[in-house]
Every structure is written in structure tokens, then in C-alpha cells.
Amino acid sequence: MVSQITRGIKISVLTSFEGTYFKNYKIHFAFSYEITIENQSKDSVQLNSRHWEIYDSLNDLEIVDGEGVIGKKPVLKPGEKHTYSSGCLLSSPFGAMRGYFNMINFTSTRSFRVIIPTFRLSAPFALN
């Protein structure tokens, strides 16, 4: 598990290899990840959008931007957590992801970025 705190918001990531399968006559490597967002600050905050950089050792960088996370824009009061799971497909058994969440602080009404730390995606059979 990797974790990072930005402005009192702790992001923790746990990853898992889910298996391989064929799609369009090509093998794909499926990975899941669980993200926990913990508000360790004294202010209520809301997650509005996300930015992902997905690195695949056999492909170019893929950028993904979108609103919320899995269709939600969670509001976190001080001490609260929000956990969600998602996943990605790679064309190789190795890769990584990193990014940030755009959030708003309800006390100051200011927007800010919370860093999602780089986390590795690797199939266990490919490690030596």
C-alpha cells in the first residue's frame, strides 16, 4: 500500500492483479485498485474531479480526466473516509498510475489538488 497526505487529505492505494484475458485477439492484463480518501484536516471538503496518468510498459502514456469518482462527488467532514474500487487494463504485465483529485474546501471556498501517489501495477508471475 502507498499513501500520501496533501493539505490534510490522505490518499491510500492498494492494488491487485486480477488476471489476463483476450480482447480483440490481444492479451490484456487486468488490475484493480482500491483508493481510500481520508480527511485529516479541520475543514469539510468535496472531491469534484480526477486526473489520471496511466503508464503501460508497452504503450504510450494514457491520460484520463473525469468528474468525481465512480459517479460520485463525495463530501468528507473532518475525520471521515471514502473508499472506492476501480481498475484498468494494460497491454503488458507492468505499469503504474498516478494523478490527482481536484477538491474544494468548504470553509475557504478554495479549490485545491490532492496528489494521488504513484502506484505500481505488476503481475506476480512476471516478477523474478
TrEMBL record:
Organism this protein belongs to = Flavobacterium supellecticarium
Among SUPFAM superfamilies, the record links this protein to: ApaG-like (SSF110069)
Under PANTHER family, the record lists: F-BOX ONLY PROTEIN 3, POLYMERASE DELTA-INTERACTING PROTEIN 2
The record ties this protein, via InterPro entries, to: ApaG_domain (IPR007474), ApaG_sf (IPR036767)
What are the ApaG domain coordinates in residue numbering?
3-128
Pfam family for this entry, one = DUF525
State the protein's name: Co2+/Mg2+ efflux protein ApaG
Q: Name one GO biological process term.
A: error-free translesion synthesis
